[in-house]
Amino acid sequence: MKLTFRWYGPSDSISLDYIREIPNMSGVVTACYDVHVGGVWKEESIKHLKSLANEHGLAMEVIESIPVHEHIKLGLSDRDELIDNYIENIRRCAKYGVKCVCYNFMPVFDWLRTTMHHKNPDGSDSLAYSYEEFLKVDPKNLHLPGWDESYSPEELQNLMEMYHKVSHDDLFNNLVYFLKKVIPVCEECDVNMAIHPDDPPWDVFGLPRIISNEADLDRLFAAVPSTRNGITLCTGSFGAGRNNNLVHMAEKYTKQGRVHFVHLRNVKWEKDDGSFTEVGHCTKDGSLDMAEIVKALVVNGFDGYVRPDHGRNIFGENGKPGYGLYDRALGATYINGLFEAFEKIYKK
Question: Which of 128, 63, 60, 69 is nearest to 90 (CA)?
Answer without folding.
Answer: 63
